[in-house]
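pls design
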Protein backbone atom coordinates (compact mmCIF):
# COMPACT_ATOMS: atom_id res chain seq x y z
CA UNK A 1 0.00 0.00 0.00
CA UNK A 2 1.40 3.39 -1.06
CA UNK A 3 1.80 6.32 1.29
CA UNK A 4 -1.06 8.17 -0.41
CA UNK A 5 -3.34 5.14 0.05
CA UNK A 6 -2.42 4.91 3.72
CA UNK A 7 -3.24 8.61 4.19
CA UNK A 8 -6.64 8.07 2.54
CA UNK A 9 -7.40 5.13 4.86
CA UNK A 10 -6.38 7.14 7.91
CA UNK A 11 -8.66 9.99 6.83
CA UNK A 12 -11.54 7.55 6.33
CA UNK A 13 -10.99 6.07 9.80
CA UNK A 14 -10.88 9.53 11.36
CA UNK A 15 -14.04 10.55 9.50
CA UNK A 16 -15.83 7.34 10.57
CA UNK A 17 -14.86 7.90 14.21
CA UNK A 18 -16.05 11.49 14.00
CA UNK A 19 -19.34 10.28 12.54
CA UNK A 20 -19.79 7.82 15.44
CA UNK A 21 -19.12 10.60 17.96
CA UNK A 22 -21.56 12.89 16.16
CA UNK A 23 -24.33 10.27 16.09
CA UNK A 24 -23.77 9.48 19.76
CA UNK A 25 -23.96 13.17 20.62
CA UNK A 26 -27.21 13.54 18.69
CA UNK A 27 -28.73 10.53 20.47
CA UNK A 28 -27.58 11.83 23.87
CA UNK A 29 -29.03 15.28 23.20
CA UNK A 30 -32.26 13.70 22.06
CA UNK A 31 -32.44 11.56 25.20
CA UNK A 32 -31.69 14.48 27.49
CA UNK A 33 -34.30 16.59 25.77
CA UNK A 34 -36.94 14.24 27.16
CA UNK A 35 -35.85 15.33 30.67
CA UNK A 36 -35.96 19.05 30.03
CA UNK A 37 -38.86 21.48 30.25
CA UNK A 38 -37.55 23.27 27.15
CA UNK A 39 -38.44 21.35 24.00
CA UNK A 40 -37.08 22.19 20.55
CA UNK A 41 -40.37 21.24 18.91
CA UNK A 42 -41.81 24.32 17.30
CA UNK A 43 -45.33 23.23 18.36
CA UNK A 44 -44.52 23.37 22.13
CA UNK A 45 -46.76 25.55 24.30
CA UNK A 46 -45.71 27.06 27.61
CA UNK A 47 -47.51 28.88 30.39
CA UNK A 48 -50.16 27.90 32.96
CA UNK A 49 -53.27 26.28 31.55
CA UNK A 50 -55.67 23.38 32.11
CA UNK A 51 -54.61 19.95 30.93
CA UNK A 52 -57.84 18.48 32.35
CA UNK A 53 -60.98 20.44 33.15
CA UNK A 54 -63.97 18.26 34.06
CA UNK A 55 -67.01 18.78 36.27
CA UNK A 56 -66.30 16.55 39.26
CA UNK A 57 -69.99 16.18 40.12
CA UNK A 58 -70.54 14.49 36.73
CA UNK A 59 -68.11 11.66 37.58
CA UNK A 60 -69.70 8.43 38.84
CA UNK A 61 -66.83 5.94 38.59
CA UNK A 62 -63.05 6.04 39.14
CA UNK A 63 -60.66 3.34 37.96
CA UNK A 64 -56.95 3.68 38.63
CA UNK A 65 -53.74 1.69 38.71
CA UNK A 66 -50.35 2.28 40.31
CA UNK A 67 -47.49 0.08 41.50
CA UNK A 68 -49.43 -0.76 44.70
CA UNK A 69 -53.03 -1.05 43.63
CA UNK A 70 -55.47 -1.60 40.77
CA UNK A 71 -58.96 -0.61 41.88
CA UNK A 72 -62.34 0.71 40.78
CA UNK A 73 -64.78 2.74 42.88
CA UNK A 74 -68.44 3.40 42.04
CA UNK A 75 -70.49 6.30 43.38
CA UNK A 76 -73.77 5.22 45.01
CA UNK A 77 -75.70 8.20 46.28
CA UNK A 78 -73.06 10.23 48.08
CA UNK A 79 -70.85 7.28 49.02
CA UNK A 80 -68.05 5.60 47.07
CA UNK A 81 -68.11 1.80 46.96
CA UNK A 82 -65.09 -0.39 46.29
CA UNK A 83 -66.27 -2.59 43.40
CA UNK A 84 -64.13 -5.60 44.34
CA UNK A 85 -65.65 -5.72 47.87
CA UNK A 86 -68.58 -3.56 48.87
CA UNK A 87 -67.80 -4.34 52.54
CA UNK A 88 -64.54 -2.40 52.36
CA UNK A 89 -64.95 0.73 54.57
CA UNK A 90 -64.22 3.28 51.85
CA UNK A 91 -63.46 6.79 53.01
CA UNK A 92 -65.66 8.74 50.61
CA UNK A 93 -64.11 12.05 51.62
CA UNK A 94 -60.70 10.78 50.47
CA UNK A 95 -62.14 9.63 47.11
CA UNK A 96 -63.86 13.00 46.67
CA UNK A 97 -60.56 14.78 47.25
CA UNK A 98 -58.78 12.54 44.73
CA UNK A 99 -61.55 13.18 42.20
CA UNK A 100 -61.30 16.94 42.68
CA UNK A 101 -57.57 16.74 41.89
CA UNK A 102 -57.97 14.45 38.85
CA UNK A 103 -60.82 16.44 37.29
CA UNK A 104 -58.91 19.73 37.30
CA UNK A 105 -55.21 19.44 36.41
CA UNK A 106 -52.98 22.46 35.74
CA UNK A 107 -50.10 22.18 33.27
CA UNK A 108 -47.05 24.35 32.64
CA UNK A 109 -46.10 23.06 29.18
CA UNK A 110 -47.60 21.17 26.24
CA UNK A 111 -45.36 19.02 24.04
CA UNK A 112 -46.07 17.40 20.68
CA UNK A 113 -44.20 14.10 20.35
CA UNK A 114 -44.34 11.09 18.09
CA UNK A 115 -45.69 7.72 19.22
CA UNK A 116 -42.19 6.26 18.96
CA UNK A 117 -40.89 8.80 21.48
CA UNK A 118 -43.46 8.07 24.22
CA UNK A 119 -41.21 5.55 25.99
CA UNK A 120 -38.63 8.30 26.55
CA UNK A 121 -41.19 10.05 28.73
CA UNK A 122 -41.99 6.94 30.78
CA UNK A 123 -45.23 5.87 29.10
CA UNK A 124 -44.02 2.33 28.46
CA UNK A 125 -44.26 1.84 32.28
CA UNK A 126 -46.46 4.68 33.59
CA UNK A 127 -46.63 5.65 37.28
CA UNK A 128 -50.42 6.08 37.26
CA UNK A 129 -53.26 5.16 34.95
CA UNK A 130 -56.52 6.89 35.90
CA UNK A 131 -59.89 6.66 34.18
CA UNK A 132 -62.75 8.97 35.10
CA UNK A 133 -66.19 7.90 33.90
CA UNK A 134 -69.13 10.26 33.80
CA UNK A 135 -72.50 9.00 34.99
CA UNK A 136 -73.43 8.57 31.32
CA UNK A 137 -70.36 6.38 30.74
CA UNK A 138 -67.95 8.74 28.93
CA UNK A 139 -64.29 8.03 29.83
CA UNK A 140 -61.43 10.45 30.31
CA UNK A 141 -58.11 8.65 30.66
CA UNK A 142 -55.13 10.18 32.41
CA UNK A 143 -51.70 8.54 32.27
CA UNK A 144 -48.75 9.82 34.31
CA UNK A 145 -45.31 9.08 32.90
CA UNK A 146 -41.84 9.60 34.33
CA UNK A 147 -40.62 12.17 36.82
CA UNK A 148 -38.27 14.80 35.43
CA UNK A 149 -35.83 15.20 38.32
CA UNK A 150 -34.31 18.31 36.76
CA UNK A 151 -37.54 20.30 36.73
CA UNK A 152 -39.41 18.30 39.40
CA UNK A 153 -42.29 17.85 36.94
CA UNK A 154 -44.21 14.84 35.65
CA UNK A 155 -45.41 14.05 32.15
CA UNK A 156 -49.16 13.60 31.61
CA UNK A 157 -50.95 12.05 28.66
CA UNK A 158 -54.71 12.56 28.20
CA UNK A 159 -56.88 10.06 26.28
CA UNK A 160 -53.93 8.37 24.54
CA UNK A 161 -53.05 11.48 22.56
CA UNK A 162 -49.47 12.14 21.50
CA UNK A 163 -49.56 15.61 23.04
CA UNK A 164 -48.00 15.57 26.50
CA UNK A 165 -48.28 17.95 29.44
CA UNK A 166 -45.87 18.77 32.22
CA UNK A 167 -47.55 18.90 35.64
CA UNK A 168 -46.54 19.15 39.29
CA UNK A 169 -46.66 16.32 41.84
CA UNK A 170 -50.25 16.90 43.02
CA UNK A 171 -51.93 14.32 40.76
CA UNK A 172 -49.36 11.47 40.97
CA UNK A 173 -48.99 11.84 44.74
CA UNK A 174 -52.78 11.77 45.25
CA UNK A 175 -53.02 8.45 43.40
CA UNK A 176 -49.83 6.86 44.81
CA UNK A 177 -51.82 4.98 47.45
CA UNK A 178 -52.65 1.46 48.54
CA UNK A 179 -56.11 0.20 49.39
CA UNK A 180 -55.78 0.78 53.14
CA UNK A 181 -54.94 4.43 52.53
CA UNK A 182 -58.51 4.74 51.25
CA UNK A 183 -60.11 3.11 54.29
CA UNK A 184 -62.32 4.93 56.77
CA UNK A 185 -60.67 5.42 60.18
CA UNK A 186 -63.02 4.89 63.11
CA UNK A 187 -62.99 7.09 66.18
CA UNK A 188 -63.38 5.63 69.64
CA UNK A 189 -66.53 6.65 71.55
CA UNK A 190 -66.26 10.00 73.29
CA UNK A 191 -65.97 9.80 77.06
CA UNK A 192 -66.14 12.62 79.59
CA UNK A 193 -64.66 13.04 83.06
CA UNK A 194 -68.08 12.69 84.65
CA UNK A 195 -68.96 9.39 82.96
CA UNK A 196 -65.72 7.45 83.55
CA UNK A 197 -66.11 5.17 86.55
CA UNK A 198 -62.89 3.21 86.29
CA UNK A 199 -59.73 3.08 84.17
CA UNK A 200 -57.41 0.05 84.06
CA UNK A 201 -54.11 0.37 82.20
CA UNK A 202 -51.87 -2.59 81.38
CA UNK A 203 -48.65 -1.35 79.75
CA UNK A 204 -46.90 -4.70 79.42
CA UNK A 205 -44.92 -4.24 82.66
CA UNK A 206 -47.53 -3.46 85.30
CA UNK A 207 -51.17 -2.64 85.91
CA UNK A 208 -52.65 0.65 87.06
CA UNK A 209 -56.22 0.83 88.33
CA UNK A 210 -57.80 4.27 88.62
CA UNK A 211 -61.15 5.09 90.20
CA UNK A 212 -63.14 8.05 88.95
CA UNK A 213 -66.35 7.73 90.92
CA UNK A 214 -66.07 11.26 92.36
CA UNK A 215 -66.46 10.16 95.97
CA UNK A 216 -64.32 12.56 98.00
CA UNK A 217 -62.42 11.80 101.19
CA UNK A 218 -61.31 8.24 100.42
CA UNK A 219 -57.59 8.98 100.85
CA UNK A 220 -55.52 10.97 103.33
CA UNK A 221 -55.77 14.20 101.32
CA UNK A 222 -59.57 14.17 101.10
CA UNK A 223 -59.47 16.65 98.22
CA UNK A 224 -60.03 14.63 95.08
CA UNK A 225 -62.45 12.40 93.22
CA UNK A 226 -59.71 10.57 91.25
CA UNK A 227 -57.84 7.74 92.96
CA UNK A 228 -55.19 5.24 91.98
CA UNK A 229 -55.44 1.79 93.51
CA UNK A 230 -53.14 -0.79 91.90
CA UNK A 231 -50.17 -1.03 92.09
CA UNK A 232 -50.64 0.36 95.63
CA UNK A 233 -52.12 -1.24 98.72
CA UNK A 234 -53.56 2.04 99.98
CA UNK A 235 -55.81 4.29 97.94
CA UNK A 236 -53.89 7.36 96.76
CA UNK A 237 -55.59 10.52 95.55
CA UNK A 238 -54.70 12.09 92.20
CA UNK A 239 -54.40 15.85 91.76
CA UNK A 240 -57.51 16.51 89.70
CA UNK A 241 -56.31 19.37 87.51
CA UNK A 242 -53.15 17.48 86.59
CA UNK A 243 -54.85 14.14 86.02
CA UNK A 244 -57.61 15.72 83.94
CA UNK A 245 -54.89 16.65 81.43
CA UNK A 246 -53.92 12.99 81.19
CA UNK A 247 -57.57 12.05 80.69
CA UNK A 248 -57.70 14.58 77.84
CA UNK A 249 -54.79 12.75 76.20
CA UNK A 250 -56.12 9.27 76.77
CA UNK A 251 -59.68 10.01 75.63
CA UNK A 252 -58.27 11.66 72.48
CA UNK A 253 -56.66 8.35 71.46
CA UNK A 254 -56.86 8.10 67.65
CA UNK A 255 -55.86 5.70 64.91
CA UNK A 256 -53.56 6.71 62.04
CA UNK A 257 -54.43 4.27 59.25
CA UNK A 258 -56.57 1.23 58.47
CA UNK A 259 -54.58 -2.01 58.51
CA UNK A 260 -57.17 -4.79 58.08
CA UNK A 261 -60.94 -5.28 57.83
CA UNK A 262 -63.19 -8.36 57.76
CA UNK A 263 -61.05 -9.55 60.66
CA UNK A 264 -61.54 -12.70 62.70
CA UNK A 265 -60.41 -13.65 66.18
CA UNK A 266 -57.46 -15.42 64.55
CA UNK A 267 -56.52 -12.17 62.81
CA UNK A 268 -56.61 -10.29 66.10
CA UNK A 269 -54.30 -12.88 67.64
CA UNK A 270 -51.89 -12.68 64.69
CA UNK A 271 -51.49 -8.94 65.22
CA UNK A 272 -51.06 -9.36 68.99
CA UNK A 273 -54.57 -7.99 69.63
CA UNK A 274 -56.29 -11.08 71.06
CA UNK A 275 -57.78 -11.42 74.52
CA UNK A 276 -54.29 -12.17 75.89
CA UNK A 277 -53.02 -8.79 74.65
CA UNK A 278 -50.60 -7.43 77.27
CA UNK A 279 -51.17 -3.72 76.57
CA UNK A 280 -54.69 -2.43 77.06
CA UNK A 281 -56.58 0.60 78.31
CA UNK A 282 -60.04 -0.21 79.69
CA UNK A 283 -62.69 2.37 80.57
CA UNK A 284 -65.81 1.45 82.51
CA UNK A 285 -68.76 3.81 82.02
CA UNK A 286 -72.58 3.78 82.01
CA UNK A 287 -74.32 2.41 78.94
CA UNK A 288 -76.90 4.30 76.91
CA UNK A 289 -80.57 3.98 77.69
CA UNK A 290 -82.67 2.93 74.70
CA UNK A 291 -84.93 5.53 73.16
CA UNK A 292 -84.50 9.26 72.75
CA UNK A 293 -87.08 10.02 75.44
CA UNK A 294 -85.43 7.98 78.19
CA UNK A 295 -86.09 9.29 81.70
CA UNK A 296 -83.72 9.69 84.63
CA UNK A 297 -85.14 6.46 86.01
CA UNK A 298 -84.26 4.74 82.72
CA UNK A 299 -80.75 6.15 82.94
CA UNK A 300 -80.36 4.87 86.48
CA UNK A 301 -80.98 1.38 85.15
CA UNK A 302 -78.47 1.63 82.33
CA UNK A 303 -76.12 -1.30 81.93
CA UNK A 304 -72.45 -0.81 82.68
CA UNK A 305 -70.24 -0.88 79.59
CA UNK A 306 -66.51 -1.12 78.99
CA UNK A 307 -64.40 0.35 76.21
CA UNK A 308 -61.10 -1.49 75.75
CA UNK A 309 -58.28 -0.22 73.53
CA UNK A 310 -55.81 -2.94 72.54
CA UNK A 311 -52.21 -2.26 71.48
CA UNK A 312 -50.49 -5.18 69.76
CA UNK A 313 -47.31 -5.90 67.86
CA UNK A 314 -45.05 -3.33 66.24
CA UNK A 315 -46.19 -2.56 62.68
CA UNK A 316 -44.15 -3.12 59.54
CA UNK A 317 -44.02 0.65 59.16
CA UNK A 318 -41.47 2.17 61.53
CA UNK A 319 -42.80 3.86 64.69
CA UNK A 320 -46.29 2.34 64.41
CA UNK A 321 -48.17 -0.34 66.34
CA UNK A 322 -51.28 -2.36 65.55
CA UNK A 323 -54.36 -1.42 67.54
CA UNK A 324 -58.12 -1.89 67.81
CA UNK A 325 -60.92 -1.26 70.27
CA UNK A 326 -63.94 -3.18 71.54
CA UNK A 327 -67.05 -2.20 73.50
CA UNK A 328 -68.57 -4.81 75.78
CA UNK A 329 -71.60 -5.02 78.04
CA UNK A 330 -70.89 -7.75 80.53
CA UNK A 331 -69.65 -10.66 78.45
CA UNK A 332 -71.45 -9.46 75.33
CA UNK A 333 -69.54 -7.65 72.56
CA UNK A 334 -71.53 -4.57 71.50
CA UNK A 335 -69.03 -3.29 68.96
CA UNK A 336 -65.64 -4.50 67.79
CA UNK A 337 -63.42 -2.50 65.50
CA UNK A 338 -61.11 -3.30 62.62
CA UNK A 339 -57.32 -3.27 62.94
CA UNK A 340 -55.47 0.03 62.63
CA UNK A 341 -52.02 1.53 62.92
CA UNK A 342 -51.33 3.92 65.79
CA UNK A 343 -48.18 5.99 66.33
CA UNK A 344 -45.56 4.91 68.84
CA UNK A 345 -45.54 8.42 70.31
CA UNK A 346 -49.24 8.14 71.18
CA UNK A 347 -48.70 4.73 72.77
CA UNK A 348 -45.93 6.15 74.94
CA UNK A 349 -48.09 9.14 75.88
CA UNK A 350 -50.98 7.02 77.13
CA UNK A 351 -49.33 3.79 78.29
CA UNK A 352 -46.25 5.03 80.13
CA UNK A 353 -48.16 6.31 83.14
CA UNK A 354 -46.03 7.59 86.02
CA UNK A 355 -48.28 7.77 89.12
CA UNK A 356 -45.86 10.10 90.91
CA UNK A 357 -46.54 12.70 88.23
CA UNK A 358 -50.22 12.94 89.21
CA UNK A 359 -50.76 11.67 92.75
CA UNK A 360 -50.63 13.34 96.13
CA UNK A 361 -47.21 12.07 97.19
CA UNK A 362 -47.27 13.12 100.84
CA UNK A 363 -46.04 10.31 103.07
CA UNK A 364 -48.55 11.39 105.69
CA UNK A 365 -51.30 13.98 105.45
CA UNK A 366 -53.57 15.12 108.26
CA UNK A 367 -55.14 18.57 108.31
CA UNK A 368 -54.08 20.33 111.46
CA UNK A 369 -57.70 21.15 112.20
CA UNK A 370 -58.44 17.40 112.30
CA UNK A 371 -55.45 16.43 114.48
CA UNK A 372 -56.04 15.31 118.06
CA UNK A 373 -52.70 13.78 119.13
CA UNK A 374 -49.36 13.03 117.50
CA UNK A 375 -46.40 10.98 118.68
CA UNK A 376 -42.95 11.13 117.05
CA UNK A 377 -40.16 8.72 118.00
CA UNK A 378 -36.56 9.32 116.92
CA UNK A 379 -34.08 6.79 118.23
CA UNK A 380 -34.81 6.37 121.94
CA UNK A 381 -36.66 9.67 122.28
CA UNK A 382 -40.46 9.92 122.00
CA UNK A 383 -42.28 13.24 121.68
CA UNK A 384 -45.99 13.22 122.48
CA UNK A 385 -48.00 16.11 121.07
CA UNK A 386 -51.48 17.10 122.12
CA UNK A 387 -53.72 19.50 120.23
CA UNK A 388 -56.24 21.06 122.59
CA UNK A 389 -59.35 22.86 121.49
CA UNK A 390 -59.82 25.94 123.67
CA UNK A 391 -62.65 27.59 121.77
CA UNK A 392 -64.51 28.06 118.52
CA UNK A 393 -64.55 30.89 116.01
CA UNK A 394 -67.92 32.37 115.22
CA UNK A 395 -67.44 31.65 111.51
CA UNK A 396 -64.97 29.73 109.42
CA UNK A 397 -62.08 31.82 108.15
CA UNK A 398 -61.46 31.94 104.43
CA UNK A 399 -58.60 29.82 103.16
CA UNK A 400 -57.42 28.14 100.00
CA UNK A 401 -57.77 24.47 99.21
CA UNK A 402 -55.32 21.90 100.48
CA UNK A 403 -52.38 21.65 98.10
CA UNK A 404 -49.89 18.95 97.24
CA UNK A 405 -47.15 21.00 98.88
CA UNK A 406 -48.95 20.75 102.20
CA UNK A 407 -50.52 24.20 102.63
CA UNK A 408 -52.88 24.22 105.60
CA UNK A 409 -56.51 25.19 105.67
CA UNK A 410 -57.72 26.21 109.11
CA UNK A 411 -61.27 25.73 110.21
CA UNK A 412 -63.29 27.01 113.20
CA UNK A 413 -61.38 25.44 116.12
CA UNK A 414 -59.14 27.61 118.31
CA UNK A 415 -56.17 25.39 119.19
CA UNK A 416 -53.23 25.20 121.58
CA UNK A 417 -50.28 22.86 121.05
CA UNK A 418 -48.35 20.88 123.69
CA UNK A 419 -45.35 18.57 123.62
CA UNK A 420 -44.81 16.25 126.58
CA UNK A 421 -47.09 18.55 128.56
CA UNK A 422 -45.25 21.79 127.65
CA UNK A 423 -47.13 24.46 125.70
CA UNK A 424 -45.55 25.34 122.36
CA UNK A 425 -45.47 28.57 120.43
CA UNK A 426 -48.37 28.45 117.95
CA UNK A 427 -46.48 29.88 114.98
CA UNK A 428 -43.42 27.68 115.56
CA UNK A 429 -45.51 24.52 115.84
CA UNK A 430 -47.50 25.32 112.72
CA UNK A 431 -44.27 25.93 110.81
CA UNK A 432 -42.89 22.57 111.97
CA UNK A 433 -46.12 20.76 111.18
CA UNK A 434 -46.10 22.21 107.68
CA UNK A 435 -42.57 20.83 107.19
CA UNK A 436 -43.67 17.44 108.55
CA UNK A 437 -46.66 16.82 106.27
CA UNK A 438 -45.19 18.43 103.15
CA UNK A 439 -42.53 15.76 102.62
CA UNK A 440 -43.23 13.56 99.62
CA UNK A 441 -42.27 10.17 98.29
CA UNK A 442 -39.85 10.17 95.37
CA UNK A 443 -39.89 6.56 94.22
CA UNK A 444 -42.49 3.77 94.14
CA UNK A 445 -41.74 0.28 95.41
CA UNK A 446 -43.72 -1.81 92.93
CA UNK A 447 -42.62 -5.25 94.09
CA UNK A 448 -42.61 -6.87 97.52
CA UNK A 449 -39.09 -8.12 96.79
CA UNK A 450 -37.91 -4.49 96.81
CA UNK A 451 -38.88 -4.02 100.46
CA UNK A 452 -36.01 -4.17 102.99
CA UNK A 453 -36.04 -4.82 106.73
CA UNK A 454 -33.39 -2.38 107.96
CA UNK A 455 -32.92 -0.10 110.99
CA UNK A 456 -35.88 2.03 112.03
CA UNK A 457 -35.01 5.73 111.96
CA UNK A 458 -38.31 7.32 112.94
CA UNK A 459 -41.87 6.45 113.88
CA UNK A 460 -44.97 8.65 113.67
CA UNK A 461 -48.41 8.12 115.13
CA UNK A 462 -51.38 10.40 114.29
CA UNK A 463 -54.83 10.28 115.84
CA UNK A 464 -57.64 12.38 114.39
CA UNK A 465 -60.60 13.99 116.09
CA UNK A 466 -63.94 12.19 116.03
CA UNK A 467 -66.02 12.76 112.94
CA UNK A 468 -63.11 13.73 110.72
CA UNK A 469 -62.49 12.08 107.35
CA UNK A 470 -61.18 8.58 106.72
CA UNK A 471 -57.91 7.28 108.19
CA UNK A 472 -58.75 8.04 111.88
CA UNK A 473 -55.34 6.66 112.90
CA UNK A 474 -52.16 6.81 110.82
CA UNK A 475 -48.91 5.06 111.73
CA UNK A 476 -45.69 5.70 109.82
CA UNK A 477 -42.37 3.91 110.13
CA UNK A 478 -39.23 5.10 108.33
CA UNK A 479 -36.37 2.64 107.83
CA UNK A 480 -32.97 2.86 106.18
CA UNK A 481 -33.05 1.83 102.52
CA UNK A 482 -30.06 3.13 100.52
CA UNK A 483 -27.63 6.03 100.56
CA UNK A 484 -30.25 8.58 99.53
CA UNK A 485 -33.60 7.29 100.78
CA UNK A 486 -35.60 5.94 103.67
CA UNK A 487 -38.32 3.35 103.22
CA UNK A 488 -41.78 4.51 104.35
CA UNK A 489 -44.39 2.13 105.77
CA UNK A 490 -47.82 3.72 106.27
CA UNK A 491 -50.50 1.76 108.14
CA UNK A 492 -48.65 -1.45 107.32
CA UNK A 493 -48.24 -0.71 103.59
CA UNK A 494 -44.69 -0.19 102.29
CA UNK A 495 -45.06 1.56 98.96
CA UNK A 496 -42.67 4.49 98.61
CA UNK A 497 -39.24 5.87 99.39
CA UNK A 498 -38.65 9.32 100.84
CA UNK A 499 -35.48 11.39 100.66
CA UNK A 500 -33.11 11.14 103.64
CA UNK A 501 -32.52 14.87 103.27
CA UNK A 502 -36.23 15.55 103.79
CA UNK A 503 -36.48 13.26 106.82
CA UNK A 504 -33.35 14.73 108.36
CA UNK A 505 -34.90 18.19 107.94
CA UNK A 506 -37.96 17.01 109.87
CA UNK A 507 -35.76 15.67 112.68
CA UNK A 508 -33.72 18.90 112.83
CA UNK A 509 -36.90 21.03 112.94
CA UNK A 510 -38.34 18.76 115.64
CA UNK A 511 -35.28 19.23 117.86
CA UNK A 512 -35.43 23.00 117.39
CA UNK A 513 -39.13 23.03 118.29
CA UNK A 514 -38.86 21.02 121.52
CA UNK A 515 -35.61 22.64 122.70
CA UNK A 516 -36.83 26.24 122.43
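designed seq:
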Amino acid sequence: MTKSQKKKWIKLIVLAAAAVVLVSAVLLIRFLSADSTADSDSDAETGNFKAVNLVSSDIGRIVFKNENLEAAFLLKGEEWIYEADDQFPTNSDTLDQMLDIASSVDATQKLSVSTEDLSQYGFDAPMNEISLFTKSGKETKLTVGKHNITTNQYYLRVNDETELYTIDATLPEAFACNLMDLGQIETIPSLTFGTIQNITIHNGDREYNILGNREYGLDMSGNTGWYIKEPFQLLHGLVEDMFDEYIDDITAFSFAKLQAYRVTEADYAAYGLGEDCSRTIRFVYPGTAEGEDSTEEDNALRNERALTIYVGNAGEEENYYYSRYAITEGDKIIEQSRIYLVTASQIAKTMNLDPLQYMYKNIVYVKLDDLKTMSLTVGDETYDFEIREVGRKEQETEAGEETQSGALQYGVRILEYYCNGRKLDEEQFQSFYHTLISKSGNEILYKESQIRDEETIMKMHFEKTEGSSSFPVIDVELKSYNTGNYQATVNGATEMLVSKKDVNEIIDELHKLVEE
